Amino acid sequence: MNAMSSNGKLLSVRNLRTYFETEDGLVKAVDGIEFELGRGETLGIVGESGSGKSVTSLSLMRLIPDPPGKIVAGEVKLNGDDLLKLSPAEIRDIRGKRIAMIFQDPMTSLNPFMRISKQLMEVTQLHLGHHRAQAYEHAIDMLEQVGIPDARARADGYPHELSGGMRQRVMIAMALSCQPELLIADEPTTALDVTIQAQILELIKRLKSDTGASVILITHDLGVVAGMTDHIVVMYAGKIFECAPTAELFAQPGNPYTHALLRSVPDPTAREQKLYQIPGLPPDLAHLPMGCPFAPRCERAEELCHREFPPFVKLTREHYSLCHFANEVYAQANAKPGK
Amino acid sequence: MGPQIQDMQASPSHGTGSREPLISIRDLHVYFTLGGSLFGKTQIVKAVDGVTLDIYEGETLGLVGESGCGKSTLGRAILRLMEPTSGEVLFQGKDLAHLSKSAMREQRRNLQIIFQDPYASLNPRMTVGQIIAEPIATFHLARGADRQRRVQELMETVGLNRRFIKRYPHEFSGGQRQRIGIARSLAVDPDFIVADEPISALDVSIQAQILNLLERLRHEKNLTYLFISHDLRAVQRISDRVAVMYLGKIVELSESQRIYAEPLMPYTKALISAVPVPDPKIEATRRRIVLQGDVPSPINPPRGCRFHTRCPYAIEACRDVEPALVEIKPNHFAACIRISPEQPNIDRVAPGEAPGLRGQLD
């Protein structure tokens, strides 16, 4: 069970497909995605609502509500073990221990009626077999590590007594209690104010380098991934549209969607007449158009794009783009550095 | 020396040249009382605590700050959707803060609001046509076929297909619902619109669409906006001037380019440095000011400068002296005793010095 995966990566996802039965029909929320994550690395998954980024993370944790959802195909290897083949008991043992997750809204994952200390203790009592006193000391230690002032006193309080930023710290303390190999952070700072967001991002960075954990950071904010990640995956309509090392993705995007996303972030230093906007609406996943799902909104789209699904083109060793014109877009992005 | 500084403190209203203010807010306070039952004692929340601000005709004034700073309350108090505790809101020679309820209702024709959550602010049982027609009917602006035609025009103005007139809000995406909200606010042909976090609930690609739509409408309809947001990038992009709010007070006010390029007050500096930039090269090299702690509660705000509990530049005097909003550079106002018109750069001020204090004590 503990054999290393052939490529030595911590996580390797192959052909993952998670579908949902809805009133409107079958929704292919995640439709054949692949990526890898090395030890100690941070991967950013970027996308808008409905892109499949959160369903991806829930699939990795096997937390898809069934029905209506189902992981219909794929392979998720953590250190060589295929998580999709594990029994419910085995996956429960991995969740919270080897893979931990933090969500956008800490209140959805903290029990409002339970003391903070107790919630942290449960994790280590379950997974590490700590006895009570040991678990309590570990809880205090974790709260101190994530920068909760006066941790010993706060530990006996309840979540509602803390601010949003402090609650997110408690979530992070809980997630890191068992020293997981992989931390999945799904929009961890979206509900927070910018000055608090800066604190939490710094905290995740510091804890990552202290513990050596790998991190998957899921966000809609290109600014957040720019400073935090080694690689980025850009999702749209359940597909990976582009993946690349972070610096390269920003410097030379090879996909029109990525390019458009980058251009639509207001740049305070620029003063063009009009802010670039992507026309149209995000796709309806139950009724995807033929061909490329982004084609109806794409500046570069030609007749071919409306007819045929695009290929996943390899641009460089680690840079791929889902586009009929990937090479062209990539070459043009190079000609105009920055934008 | 003293009197000179006094003069410059006079009013942050001398902003954009000779233009006339459309709205003049004078020493506005909005307090609420909290509790009284469960916890026994009644507490007072000072959501807006002495704000003086002019909004010029045709401009977009951005109002930024973190949650709980009072920015939404200020926007709502201008329209009397929340009752001001004291102070004035002058509009076309009338003080909105002291109008009777019925007189204020008449004024709402000129003053409109766009809300953050287009899911919560549209009546789910009304069709798009009814939602947009309602204010037209309320103010008796048009009836019958005329009203219908006007609704269709408004839908087209905001980029909604007029075929959708009989559809219900739940049939639309977030961005389209925001367009419905905008069409409704335009229906009465207002002069002034408070846009309260109008893009915060929307996807990145849709945010740009709504920002561009608001910008186009401002020119076409000669509108004036108070654009409230926690998103500094968006605020900077759409605004002519930006006011920064912290715990019920305006702490900095300037042209938006300037406030971003050279923030004067430590809180604004921290706020701007906290925004992540979508460029890995910049992110790797720039120094971020990470503020310690949370925003204190507006129930019992800190004495002196309200930011002193988190300010890396705070000195003893900051705990005692409440800083006034001073014109540090031409048209650039900041509330901080550690800077002055002579020494606007806080990093060059000697440790322990408070050059702004001399003026304030006179």
Output the strand order for the largest sheet of chain A: 6-7-8-3-9-10-12-11
For the secondary structure, the number of strands of chain A is 12
Shape of chain A: globular
Work out the helicity level of chain B.
Answer: 25-40%
Tell me what you see in this structure.
The complex is a heterodimer of chains A (339) and B (362). Chain A is an alpha/beta fold and 339 residues long. Helices cover 33% and strands 23% of the residues of chain A. Chain A is built from twelve helices and twelve strands. Mean pLDDT of chain A is 90; it is low at 1-6. Chain B is α/β, with parallel strands linked by helices and 362 residues long. The longest helix of chain B has 18 residues, at 204-221. In chain B, strand 11 (326-329) and strand 12 (332-334) form a beta hairpin. Chain B starts with a helix and ends with a helix. Chain B contains twelve helices and twelve strands. Chain B has helices at residues 2-9, 71-78, 101-107, 128-138, 144-157, 174-186, 204-221, 232-238, 256-261, 266-274, 280-285, 357-361, and strands spanning 21-35, 42-56, 60-64, 86-91, 94-95, 111-114, 192-196, 224-229, 241-246, 249-255, 326-329, 332-334. Classes of the chains: A alpha/beta (339), B alpha/beta (362).
Short description:
The complex is a heterodimer of chains A (about 350) and B (about 350). Chain A has helices spanning about 55-60, 90-95, 115-125, 130-145, 150-155, 165-175, 195-210, 220-230, 245-250, 255-265, 305, 325-335, and strands at about 10-20, 25-35, 40-45, 70-80, 80, 100, 180-185, 215-220, 230-235, 240-245, 310-315, 320.
List keywords for this structure.
heterodimer; A: 339 residues; alpha/beta; 8-stranded mixed beta sheet; 4-stranded antiparallel beta sheet; globular; disordered N terminus; B: 362 residues; 12 helices; 12 strands; 22% strand
